[in-house]
Amino acid sequence: MTELDLQVCGSISEIDAEAWNALLMLQDNPTPFLRWEFLHALEVTQCTCTDTGWQPLPLVARNSLGQVKAAAPLYAKHHSYGEYVFDGAWAQAYARAGLDYYPKLLVASPFSPIPGARLLAADPQARRELLQGIRSLAQTNGLSSVHLLFGSEQDLLVARQDQWLIRENLQFHWQNLGYGSFEDYLSSLTQPKRKKIKAERRKVRDAGVSTVIRCGDEITQADWEFFYTCYSRTYREHYSTPYLSLDFFYTIAKTMPEAMVMCIASAAGSPIASALLMRNEHVLYGRYWGAVARVDCLHFEVAYYAPIAWAIAHGCSRFEGGAQGEHKLARGFTPAKTYSAHWLREPRFADAVARFLERESEGIERYVNELEERSPIRTP
Q: How far, in Å, are 42, 226, 322 from residue 23 at the CA level?
């Protein structure tokens, strides 16, 4: 790097929290998933560590005066779990060729498919030098690749300029078009969709279920314990193991309570389902959900409808419901493209992946056009 001095750290605790968060706040739509407190909580609770295959290598770049001008959440990954951008076929191709795909470098917020800035920089030149420094780090250490996941437009701009491969994906986001209430929102939908949502909410209500949303310090320890029971159960039902620990959730509840939003459903005086969401000033992010009882349409109420009502009441401009899920379309969410950037050291594999991504992008474009034709939002 010609302008900045790049330092690879062994822990984000080696980087000043105020400096990191100040850089984050300079970016468009800074998400809570890149805050120093969030990444630090992952480390101190051992959710991201060598043993879990997420070795933290956070970067900080300083100018000649020692001022922090750029930073990035970097990890050495020994697998591809918890990324939500799937490159398993690439890893298999490397293995067939007798090459090592892992470890690779990952620029991301762990376990969080939330679009936002990954290259935290004070200006475009610092962002470009940071990305080039990450690539040089991979080259120097003979690593197969670098992957920047769910980056911002500014991240993607410098990646394109440096000839990185760009991959498109699709999520479903709810947009607040100036609604004054949930009923106001329903009135914007086509009649069949409006009728469907009302029927689904009525089923939950008729089952004797009520919901409450608590924020920040309103969320009790008992609420967190019940939420974690639900969260763990969801993973077990899918024959998987939770990425995050109860200690992690306790930690972020203490260090960034203003970002916490929890929806709890109860029946006969006892909680039966819970969803954890997070927020910044303008956006609500749906993250985790689970239930200990089966009630028809309960998932839609706890994970979508009650949060949408809350988002409207609190002036959120958008509700991002998480990765994937075409079923969200029928509930008022609309398709939104997300992007990742990839650098592969082996030219023959880079060429093959580039051709694959071109075909994949064409398929996504056709899919988006099809989804937009089925939009539940009424046209004037």
A: 20, 35, 25
What torsion, rounded to 10 degrees, do the Cα atoms 88, 94, 95, 96 define? 110
Give the pair of three-digit tokens for residue 84. 């939500």
**How many other CB atoms sit within 10 Å of the CB of residue 188?**
15
Identity of residue 72:
A
Average pLDDT score over the chain: 95
Domains belonging to the chain, first-starting first, are 5-170+337-373 (3.40.630.30), 177-316 (3.40.630.30)
Measured from the Cβ of residue 369, the count of other Cβ atoms closer than 10 Å reads: 10
pLDDT at 380: 58
Residue 74 · residue 68 · CB < 8 Å: no
Q: Which of 61, 222, 232 is nearest to 132 (CA)?
A: 61
Q: Is the pLDDT of residue 375 over 50?
A: yes
324 pLDDT higher than 80: no
Tokens, residue 45? 């609770």
Q: Which residues of 193-204 are buried (b: 16+ CB within 10 A; e: fewer)?
A: bbebbeebbebb
Q: For the chain, where are the alpha helices, taking DSSP H only?
A: 17-25, 36-44, 88-96, 124-140, 153-161, 182-186, 191-206, 221-237, 246-255, 298-300, 306-313, 347-373
If you average pLDDT over residues 224-236, what whole number do you get?
96
Q: In what order do the strands lie in the sheet with 209-215?
A: 54-56, 74-77, 104-107, 145-148, 334-344, 165-175, 318-323, 283-291, 270-279, 260-267, 209-215
Picking from 295, 299, 247, 255, the residue whose alpha carbon sits closest to that of residue 274 is 299
The model's pLDDT over 149-158, given as tens digits with 9 standing for 90+, comes to 999 999 999 9
Reported as a single tens digit per residue, the pLDDT across 100-153 is 999 999 999 999 999 999 999 989 999 999 999 999 999 999 999 999 999 999
